[in-house]
Write a structure and sequence with these properties.
There is one protein chain. By secondary structure, the protein is α+β, with helices and mostly antiparallel strands. Helices cover 27% and strands 39% of the residues. A 7-stranded antiparallel beta sheet has the order 1-7-6-5-4-3-2. α1 packs across α3. The longest helix has 29 residues. The termini are far apart.
Length: 166
């Protein structure tokens, strides 16, 4: 699956906001209950690995809550990239999703809009044989990433100094 977004803000500032402020951004999304960093490592060569635990907000009827396994709302998201590069690899692991491998993909950030914005290419692999389920999960992930990237762009815009008037 592939999607392209055009957003205000430079590729570097958007990628930085996304990877460094993801937990704050995720917590502001209506379908997220919480997000926290589990691990952050930077190698001497500039390889960055960030692992986060996300807890999704879901509406479950009270009658069904006792039958749900603890942790089904949780997902571990891992980001990997090299400092100064515009490619971000990601993967998500979830107890609720029984896939033969991790769901994952990449984000590629590039300058767009005459240098005033960014083009973000989102790629995703969902290793599930059932095409309908793969399509549904892909659409949900695309919506999640779109919301997260739009929140990052809004954060970057809010931090930008206002243009002088006059």
């Amino acid at each position: 699956m592939k999607s392209i977004l055009l957003l205000q803000g430079s590729p570097t500032s958007l990628m930085d906001a996304l990877v460094e402020q993801t937990c704050e951004l995720a917590a502001a999304l209506p379908h997220m209950e919480s997000a926290r960093v589990l691990e952050r490592r930077v190698s001497p060569q500039g390889h960055v690995l960030i692992r986060q635990q996300w807890r999704l907000r879901v509406s479950v009827p009270a009658l069904l809550r006792p039958h749900l396994e603890d942790g089904l709302q949780d997902c571990v998201l891992t980001f990997e990239y090299r400092t100064g590069e515009s490619l971000l690899q990601w993967r998500a692991e979830s107890a609720a999703l029984h896939a033969p491998g991790d769901v994952g993909g990449s984000l590629v950030f590039a300058t767009a809009l005459g240098g005033r914005g960014s083009r973000v290419e989102w790629n995703c692999e969902v290793p599930i044989a059932n095409e309908a389920l793969r399509t549904i999960i892909g659409a949900l992930l695309e919506r999640q990433w779109r919301a997260l990237l739009e929140a990052a762009a809004a954060r970057v815009a809010a931090a930008r100094p206002a243009a002088p008037t006059g």
